[in-house]
Design a protein that fits this description.
The structure holds two protein chains of two kinds.
Chain A lengths: L1 E10 L2 E11 L4 E5 L6 H8 L7 E6 L2 E2 L5 H8 L2 E4 L11 H12 L4 H14 L15 H13 L5 E5 L7 H18 L2 E6 L2 H7 L2 E6 L2 E6 L1 H5 L4 H8 L9
Parallel strand pairs in A: 3-8, 3-9, 6-7, 7-8
Antiparallel strand pairs in A: 1-2, 1-4, 4-5, 9-10
Helix pairs in contact in A: 3-4, 3-5, 4-5
Chain B lengths: L2 H29 L7 H13 L2 H26 L5 H39 L2 H7 L4 H40 L3 H11 L2 H27 L4 H32 L3
Helix pairs in contact in B: 1-6, 1-8, 2-6, 3-4, 3-6, 4-6, 4-7, 4-8, 4-9, 6-8, 8-9
The chains are: A alpha/beta, B mainly alpha.
Chain lengths: 247, 258
C-alpha cells in the first residue's frame, strides 16, 4: 500500500503540492487527474523518491520514502517500474538493450536468460519486431511501449505511469490503455496513472483522484467521478473554460 | 532585485556547484572499484575521448611548438645564442604548454561533449529513469568518462610534448638556422625528468577536473535545450578557469622537487 500524508512541495516559492493526502491500495489502479502543470508528475516523482517533500510522509508498505536514502532507497525502488512521459529510453541503446538494461545491471541471470526474458517482455507489449531499432527512430507510441517493457521486465509490484497516452492518436492511446489493463491482469500490480485524458482515466482506473491546486479534492470510482457534483471536478471533466482550473 | 541579492545568489550558486562537484568527485573515485566490470564502456570512452581528440591535439601541439621556436628564436638570434631554442621549446612544452594546451583542447572537445550528453540525458528524464531502476548513474555514466580523461590527458600530453618539440625543431632548422642536432642536443641537456613527470602529473589532475566539471554541469542541467546549452558552456568556462588556477598551484608544488 502507498500512502501520501500531508505532502507539501514548493519550487522557488511556487507551491506545487499543498498538503496531499492519498492512499493507494494493493493491486488497484488509481488514476490521478489534474490540469497541465498541476503537480501530478511531481507527486509521482515523490512516490519513487526522485523528489523529497518539504513536509509530509510517503509510505510504501510502511517505509517512508521521503526519509530513505542510499541502498535502502534502491531496495524500495526495485519494487517499482516507472513509465516516463517521454519514454526516457537511453538514447544510445537500441530497444532490446534498453529493455534488458535492468536485468544486465541488477540480476545474476546469464546472457541467454536475459535475451529470452527480453524477447518475452517485448512480445508482451507487441514490440518484438522493433528490438534493434534506436529510440530516435521510434514513434511516440512505440517509445511508450518500449518504456513499459523496460519498466516491467523485473516484475515490479507497483507501476507508475506518467501521462501514458498524451500526444498519442486515439488508436495508439487505446492500445496503451489496453496494455495497462492487460498488465494489471497478468502481473497483478498496483498502478498509479497520472493523466488528463478522461477516456483513459475511465478505461483503466479502479479509482480516480482529482488533484487541484496541490490538493486532492475528490476521489471516487469512475462512475462516481462521472456523476460528481463537485464543481472543480465537473469543470475539468466538461472542459469548462469559465472555471479557474490551474493550467 | 537589488545588486546585493544578485551577488549573494551568485555566490551561493557557485558554492552549491562546487559542493555538488566535490561530492561527485568522491562518488566517482569510489565507483572506480567497478572499473573492471565496466571495461567495455571505458574502452569506448578511451576511443571517444582519446583517439578522436588526437588530430586536434597534434595540430595544436605542433603549432604551439612552432610559434614558441619562432618567437624565442628571433630574440635569441639577436644575442647569437639561437641554439638554445631547443632547451626553451622542449622545456616550455613539457612544463606548461603541453599540459595546458592539451587539456584546454580536451575541455573544449571532450568536456563539452560530456556535459551536452549527460545534460541531454538529464532533461529527457533518462538519468531519473536510471535512478528509478536503481542503476547508479555514477558508475554507469560518469566513471568511464572520468577514467578515459584521467588516462588519456597524460598520454595525449606526452604525445603533444614530442610533437611540439618536433615543430620547434622544424622551425629552428628552416627559419632560425639551428640544425636538428644542435636543437635536440640543447633540449636534452636542459630537460630534467621532473619537467616531464611534472607536466604529466598536471595533465592527470586536469583530466580528472575536466571530467568531474563536465559531468557535474551535465547532471545539473534543467529547462530543456537551453539548460543543456548553458551546462555545456559552463563546463568549458569552469574547466578553463580551473585549469589555469590549478596550474599555478601545481607548478608551485612541482617546484619543490627541483
Amino acid at each position: 500500500m502507498i500512502e501520501l500524508i500531508d505532502v507539501h512541495k514548493q519550487f522557488e516559492g511556487n507551491k506545487v503540492l499543498n498538503g496531499i493526502n492519498l492512499r493507494i491500495e494493493d493491486s488497484e489502479t488509481l488514476v490521478v487527474l489534474g490540469g497541465s502543470g498541476g503537480g501530478k508528475s511531481v507527486m509521482l516523482r515523490h512516490i519513487v523518491g526522485l523528489y523529497k517533500p518539504d513536509k509530509g510522509q510517503i509510505l510504501v508498505d510502511g517505509v517512508d520514502v521521503a526519509k530513505t536514502t542510499g541502498s535502502d532507497l534502491a531496495t524500495v525502488r526495485r519494487r517499482f517500474g516507472m513509465c516516463f512521459q517521454s519514454g526516457a529510453l537511453i538514447n544510445w541503446m537500441n530497444v532490446e538493450d534498453n529493455v534488458a538494461l535492468p536485468l544486465r545491471e541488477l540480476s545474476d541471470l546469464s546472457d541467454r536468460e536475459i535475451a529470452e526474458k527480453t524477447r518475452e517482455t517485448l512480445a508482451l507489449v507487441s514490440m518484438e519486431h522493433a528490438a534493434k531499432v534506436m529510440p530516435s527512430e521510434l514513434s511516440g507510441g512505440m517509445k511508450r511501449r518500449a518504456a513499459l517493457a523496460r519498466a516491467i521486465i523485473r516484475n515490479p509490484q507497483i507501476i507508475l505511469y506518467d501521462e501514458p497516452t498524451s500526444d498519442l492518436d486515439p488508436v495508439m492511446a487505446n492500445h496503451i490503455n489496453e496494455l495497462i489493463l492487460d498488465l494489471k491482469d497478468k502481473l497483478n500490480v498496483t498502478s498509479v496513472v497520472v493523466t488528463h485524458d478522461m477516456h483513459s482515466a475511465y478505461t483503466v482506473g479502479d479509482r480516480i483522484a482529482m488533484l487541484y491546486e496541490g490538493k486532492i479534492v475528490q476521489t471516487g470510482t469512475p462512475d462516481e467521478i462521472k456523476h460528481t457534483q463537485n464543481p472543480l471536478v465537473r469543470r475539468f471533466i466538461d472542459g469548462d473554460t469559465s472555471g479557474l482550473l490551474a493550467t | 532585485m537589488s545588486i546585493f541579492v544578485r551577488v549573494g545568489q551568485g555566490v551561493l550558486s557557485a558554492f552549491e556547484s562546487a559542493g555538488f562537484a566535490a561530492i561527485l568527485f568522491v562518488r566517482t573515485l569510489s565507483a572506480l572499484r567497478h572499473a573492471y566490470a565496466r571495461r567495455d564502456s571505458i574502452m569506448e570512452q578511451f576511443f571517444r575521448s582519446g583517439i578522436m581528440s588526437l588530430p586536434v591535439v597534434l595540430l595544436v601541439a605542433l603549432f604551439s611548438g612552432m610559434v614558441l621556436a619562432l618567437q624565442s628564436g628571433i630574440e635569441l638570434r639577436d644575442f647569437g645564442v639561437q641554439e638554445e631554442i631547443g632547451a626553451i621549446v622542449a622545456g616550455a612544452m613539457c612544463r606548461e604548454m603541453g599540459p595546458i594546451m592539451t587539456c584546454i583542447t580536451l575541455a573544449g572537445l571532450v568536456g563539452s561533449a560530456i556535459a551536452a550528453e549527460i545534460g541531454t540525458m538529464k532533461v529527457s528524464d533518462e538519468i531519473d529513469a536510471l535512478e528509478v531502476m536503481s542503476i547508479d548513474p555514477v558508475p554507469f555514466l560518469i566513471m568511464p568518462r572520468f577514467v578515459a580523461l584521467m588516462v588519456f590527458a597524460p598520454v595525449l600530453t606526452m604525445i603533444a610534448d614530442l610533437v611540439g618539440a618536433l615543430g620547434g625543431a622544424i622551425v629552428g632548422q628552416l627559419q632560425i638556422g639551428v640544425s636538428y642536432q644542435a636543437y635536440f642536443s640543447s633540449a636534452r641537456q636542459a630537460l630534467v625528468m621532473v619537467d616531464v613527470y611534472g607536466g604529466l602529473f598536471k595533465s592527470f589532475v586536469f583530466g580528472m577536473l575536466i571530467a568531474v566539471v563536465a559531468s557535474a554541469e551535465g547532471l545539473r542541467a534543467d529547462h530543456g535545450a537551453e539548460g543543456v546549452g548553458r551546462a555545456t558552456r559552463s563546463s568549458v568556462v569552469i574547466s578553463f578557469i580551473l585549469i589555469i588556477v590549478f596550474n599555478y598551484f601545481l607548478t608551485s608544488v612541482i617546484g619543490c622537487f627541483y
